[in-house]
Write a structure and sequence with these properties.
By secondary structure, this protein is mainly α. It is about 85% helix and about 0% strand. Helix 1 runs antiparallel to helix 2 and helix 2 runs antiparallel to helix 3. The chain starts with a helix and ends with a helix.
Length: about 160
């Protein structure tokens, strides 16, 4: 008893298998690219750590280690390195197919570090008018408070 529909199902099954193989190959390619991106961020971090060490040594040798602007520059570089680490961890989380909650939390942490960095290096003299500086300060504050609220909600609603 031959099933006349059996032959009509064969091509879709072959097509499904081809789609699965192709999707798997593309996913493997994406994983390789993600790992390459992670390696680039790791390299940038290593270069940044060396640069930070040199910056500290040069600032101390010049006698400017007590200058608040020099210290702010050092802190700025350090926070930039933390941002690179957070982006690296986010890429690794994507590669490992971590749960979405972990990835979102890493992105929030990255945003908070970036906004804190902006606040620390904020200088009103860099803006054409006081109004421009005030608008930028308000935007930074809104972004930082928003990220803080999102993190708080994420921790309280979803829990640790």
């Amino acid at each position: 008893m031959d099933d006349p529909d059996a032959d009509s199902e064969a091509p879709p099954r072959r097509l499904d298998a081809w789609i699965d193989r192709t999707a798997s190959r593309i996913e493997d390619f994406i994983n390789v690219v993600e790992l390459a991106a992670a390696a680039i961020f790791a390299l940038l971090f290593a270069i940044g750590v060396v640069d930070l060490a040199l910056q500290i040594v040069e600032t101390a040798a010049d006698g400017n280690i007590t200058d608040p602007l020099a210290v702010i520059d050092i802190i700025d570089t350090g926070l930039l390195l933390l941002i690179i680490v957070e982006v690296y961890q986010t890429v690794i989380a994507y590669t490992r197919r971590s749960e979405t909650r972990r990835i979102v939390r890493l992105i929030i942490y990255t945003g908070i570090i970036a906004m804190v960095r902006k606040v620390i290096i904020f200088r009103t003299g860099e803006y054409a008018t006081t109004g421009d500086a005030l608008l930028a300060a308000a935007a930074y504050t809104l972004a930082l408070v928003g990220l803080g609220v999102i993190l708080l909600v994420e921790q309280r609603v979803v829990g640790d």
